Amino acid sequence: MSVSRNVDYLLRPSSDLQLTAAYPVNPRRGTAIAIIVVYCILLALMTLPYLRTFQVIQTNPGYIRRGPHAQRDQPPSSSSTEKQTFQRSCAPTTIEERPPKPHSRSRSRSHSAPHRDLDRKAIFDGTVAPPPGLERFYAKDAFVCDMSGLPIFCPKCDNWKRDRTHHCSEVGRCVRRMDHFCPWIGGIVSETNLKFFLQFVVYAALYTLFMLVVLAVFVAEQVRIGLGRDAWLIGILVCSATFFFFAAGMSGSVIQMSLRNYTTVENLFKGNKTYFIAVYTGPQTPQAAMERPLYPTVTYPLRPTPGADIRQFAILQTKPGENPWDLGALQNWRELMGYSWLEWLLPIKYSPFCKHGARYEYPFGPVLDRMRREAGLSSR
Ligand SMILES: [Zn+2]
């Protein structure tokens, strides 16, 4: 509305303004066309990532599958929708989305304790079977764990939490690389849509900045030539300024955290936080197995069967405040936005970090290399 008023003012200033005003105002066709073109481009650039963010929230929000006990509490309709959502999931290696194996249910009913109260001692003693899904962790070379070497467990979802997963109380689900719950887009900003959300707030900041500048120029000109202040334009100008500062602030915040590879949740609680990380020690020689290691270890499977691949993990701890996933600003940015300018600018592809690797859930940075060296697990 404000743009059409301004363009109309540029194209067809009243004859009074052209002939009698102290500062004659002539038609400015070129300026009007430029404003319309830039306005339409910015509007499209802002709208596309917003729609993409909304679409991803509906189809692939990055939820972790609930465990069997939690699922029993769900109404049938909810489970059906959930299953369909996971079937549409994009992430190529999101193995949680697969239905549980047929043997899991009967085994857990007969032997396992209620998963809401994970009894670690009983699990290590062998008197209680661990909740299913541990093999998805110890198949990797490193994963976040607790002091005992077990992955972090969410009692509400009744399932193990993949690295950087956070339980969102708004939706009652564990969410991969959850950033924050955003009422403006009606859902969770997480690993699957953080890139599109960032594009949206950046373009929204540019759009509102453009509106702000154009309106400020017009209001100033109208005051200068004696037309007085147009209350409608001033109202739009104030709204543009408000949304600009909000969008610019949000853009700056997300960019700053992304360059350091923090989610909003992680950034809030980083302080002196430390992580325990189970790090694969590599094949064990008989001699090494006899030596007492410098670090606590955990060996998987917890109850090995004949012929099973035994994997020993060192339980290492980061220093307070360290971010083990910090890859450096440029690589952090690429892992979020992609590896080409086109991916940075347009909401087409998912972030590269959605493709969870076989060795790590998310790539670890130099912090883990240093921890390996200090533990004598690597000479690099
Ligand atoms: Zn949870």
Automatic annotation (TrEMBL):
Superkingdom field: Eukaryota
Membrane topology according to the record: Multi-pass membrane protein
All residue ranges annotated as the Palmitoyltransferase DHHC domain in the record: 153-268
Coiled coil residues, start to end: none
Annotated region described as Disordered, given as residue ranges: 65-115
Family: Belongs to the DHHC palmitoyltransferase family. PFA5 subfamily.
Protein name: Palmitoyltransferase
